[in-house]
Amino acid sequence: MTQAQTILTGESVADLLTRSYEHAYEQGWTDGLPIIPPTPEAVERFVAASGRSGDDLIGVLPPRKGRATVEVIAVNAIMAGCRAEYMPVVIAAIEAMTDPSYPLEFMQVTTNPMTPFLLVNGPVRQQLDINYGTGCLGPGWRANATIGRSIRLSMINIGGALPGVYSKVSLGSPLRYSYICGENEEENPWTPFHVDRGFERSQSTVTVFKASNFCNISGGEGVGADEILRHIATNMPPMYGGGDGALLLLGINHARSLFDAGLTKRDIQQRLFEYARVPAAHFAESFATTERNAGRGDADSVWRARCPEEIYLAVAGGPGPQDVYIGAGMPQTRLIRGL
Amino acid sequence: MPTVMVVTDTFAKFGRRMASTQGCPYVIIAETPNPIRQLEPDALRARAQAMLPTVIDGLTLPPAEIQRRMREVAREEIHPSGVVRSASPV
Known about the structure:
The complex is a heterodimer. Chain A is 34% helix and 18% strand. By secondary structure, chain A is of the alpha+beta class. Chain B is built from 3 helices and 2 strands, in the order βαβαα. The interface between A and B is medium-sized, with 14 and 14 residues.
């Protein structure tokens, strides 16, 4: 291991673990929650599981321009509680976040609580037990909880987004602890999200969105496809921070109802694009003007996206008349290698 | 190229940290009290005029003089001693 090491001693395992947590917290290495100490042996194991060399550079994380090597990513993944076999997913997500078109630096320093949202597709979901069904946005699944958390720890420790020092987020967000789920491809009557983006169904990918909120939409069950979509659309308010688009995680009940009504994904995008419009008079003029100038509105109304394609659709979760709307955009999809 | 940062005071130290990541730790920063969104044009103009001497300094002083003036300030602001998180501006 090439990183500096700290030697801690304790009178018992419990004592040592507590000291590790306290030390990491004092150093500013945590999100506030307890961590697993990244011993050199564990780091070696995680690097080996990645299928890469420890000094492979995956990306440079702003604002401090920290070098996200496989070894440093492993340190943060261990602290987050990941299993070694999660490393390829974490690495693919960091690759996506460091794409020049992804607004990582803005995300790291802004007062807005925007955060990465990770959507996982392909066989990796079963392989690593990444939840895509009931309760997929948490809590309760180790892979979901710790892969997302490792991304946040990397943003803090590699990127230097120390709260209040480099990160100027005004209120923050609970979504910044971990925000991730798999797509429920098994109950998605259309093509999976990653296939729509040009990958094979048999490939595993992670897509990282810039996301700004979580909004669960309840209801709309049993009233027909058009009413379902109107109900969803009226719960998709425009917002700062996620203004680049919208991600709709359709629950499996509504996905089935819409499919059975003969709607394609493209049909749904088009209808939501038309329905999710609010009279401009509903908003402060400055906001309406901003949205209009960004191509998301006209003289009469503010739109949820510039075009239907900016309303991204995926299917997730378990049974129930529930959907989730996330103000989200700028998706970057990466193949998960080395599984 | 002569450059000055104009920023509200809440973000001044943060601004210097960000400037330092771009290789400009000694940039002259013209500050005005936060917030400014609510100000009417006349009040905003008065704020801008109050910053003008600092702006002129930053655009006209020799780089060596700017570095001399800002060295200690930059050292304290970019790496505040012992601070790893803060709930108030540091």
